[in-house]
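ERR on first pass: missing label on line 2. Operator R.T. fixed the label and resubmitted. Corrected input:
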Amino acid sequence: MEERTYRRSRIAAFIAGATLLAAACSSGTATQSPAASTGGGASAPAPSTGGGSAAPSSGGGDLAGQSVTVIGTWGGDEEKAFHQMVAPWEAQTGATVKYTGTRDLNTVLTTGVASGVLPDLAGLPGPGQMVSWADSLVDLGGVLDVPTYTAETAPALVSLGKVNDKLVGVFIKTAVKGLIWFDPKVLTDLGTTPPATWDALQTYITTNKSKAQSPWCLGVESGAASGWPGTDWIEDIILRQAGPDVYAQWYQGKVKWTDPAIKTAWTTFGDVVANSYGGSATVNSTNFANAGDPLFKTPPGCMFLHQASFITGLGAFKTATAGTDYNFFQMPDINAQYTGAVEGAGDLFGMFHDTPAAKSLMAYLVTAPAQDIWVKIGGALSANKNATDYPDDISKRSAAILTNAKIFAFDGSDLMPTAMNDAFWKGIVAYVKDPSQLDSILANLDTVQTSAYATP
Amino acid sequence: MDPRLTTALAVVVGVPAVLFGYIILTEQILRPIPDRRRGTLRPWLWLLPALAFLAVFLIYPTIGTIIHSFQNTAGTKFVGLDNYVYFFTSPSTLGALKNNVLWVILLTLFTVSFGMIIAVLVDRVRYESIAKAVIFLPLAISMVAASVIWRFMFLYNAPGETQTGTLNAIAGVFGAGPFPWLQIENFSFNTILLIIVMAWMWTGFCMVIISAALKGISAELLEAARVDGANEWQVFRGIIFPLLLPTLAVVATTIVITALKAFDIVYVMTGGNFDTQVMAQSMIQEMFTNGNFGRASAVAVVLLLTIIPVMAINIRRFQAQEAIR
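pass 2 clean. output:
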């Protein structure tokens, strides 16, 4: 009797267990699809209507309630500016933008491309990385109004977004590099007649030595990317000293770092480091955003700061008044042969998921009205020529430099393979720390060069 | 219903149900098997899910990493020992290796010795629990947050400016400095400063474990020694320390592994500049910045090989203790 009930209960338990097991398994598979789609970042429920039908006007559909996931490097004020920029689009379509800002964009996207877990839209670390991800990126030819985009954008920037004639990246924001900032209240004579050559600038520095503690302000600290402000210096010098051809060969890995042309650029930069506010230790421990703060001190800590146009949105520049508190002139020519060269950079944007909402947002972002919101806030320049709503003359002038450049060179370190770029940053930090190590630093960069450019 | 809610429900109900179902299932499988064999077979069946997880999430990736370490950047071609040759010839990875040796030795020394000293000392005071809580607290802070806090300690401003970093402000009171603490490479001084940050966090952990072992030493034993005329130092030297040894070994192993995994502090505080790079950071750098899977895997394999002896010693000790019992 007892044996029997025992057996019966065992069987019942087994059946119950098996049912539960089956239920658990089936519910497991049922939940898999929503989980997978959130993981993929594509939360738009509408299935893709298949290729071919992707017309620029596809954003016209009903997007209410849908969302677009976006990853970028912007945080703080820049993130706020981005939200302001997309707000009209959100209001118009009823869709929402889910933005995540990360400093580790490269890591997030490298793993994302390998695993397929990607946002709809993303900022791309640079043209070099964009090329290696070209297969994962959506062809924007069917997303943007291409003729308008091409007409409104500087040709150099349009072509930088293309890989094998496929448009995969657009510049959502740009900057002019190689601007030299100063305080017009201290250096009163510079506003109208900036030094035309590097030598003239050196003479100016010698004669006006007493006006500030040191000639230059410099700060290369930037977390894991420490050193990049120095790479801008080297690039600007090479562009003006050795010319755009050497510059191009150099970032393509065809000129060695130990080449005399490159080495001379480093020693020219070395003069700046030697004449910088606070010396080596200060340069390496000062964040680039605050590097220009001593310009505005009384007595002034330095005469000049070399930084891109975006500095006006950072550090002490943010609270200072354009034109009266700060002004700029373009980095002067070093070799008259290469006059008119301008270095620029920008934030590339690409699309990983072909959803209607993502397409609509992408198309909106590059238009002049959207870009106007962005530039009006300050600190950003637009690649779009028709975005002219700049808040002050300073920004207007830097935007004009970009659109009128005779020779346009994109930020060379951003065009290098990431392994090379990273070694370049570290090389700058090491050089600032101890300039006597230049030869070993350059030899090390040569070693990295041989492996970084090798095709797998 | 929100899909996340469905997922949560499925997990909360499903996981126990599957486990329960599995146990019943194994019993059913064992039923036809003779009693004698059942005893030997049952543990294996019960272990099977865990072993499966281990195989999928630990053994498979380990083998994959080892294979990758002999392959090129993208993992498409075998390149022999190239990645290892790179590891043992490149100045930056050799520097990382040297720094990791420093991390292992100094971090273990700092945390275990201070942990023990504090544990023994607070054992004798009335406010023991408060003192222990305060020392344990840093462990609860995330590594990155701790690094940010310590960056303020070591902060350096240009000479002549107000020093906002704690250490330089203190040095300024005595008319010294400012010192660019994290840039001083001589005698690996900056690496030692980074190790101190980690030691600040982990001393509390060592103290808590050692303190627990201390409570396990019978009071009669110590009492007897004291009655026999031993002074406090002799009691510590002759009784407490030998009895703490097994615990110290376990704590030290944990710290050695922690030291080999050191990454966050270096990444946040110096970014590996100024000769402070460590292996875990070289690995992440090769993997995610440079996209070089081969080299990253080679670094991972070297790290694995260094940890194995530590684990082996620990397991042997553990088995020896089991045998005594």
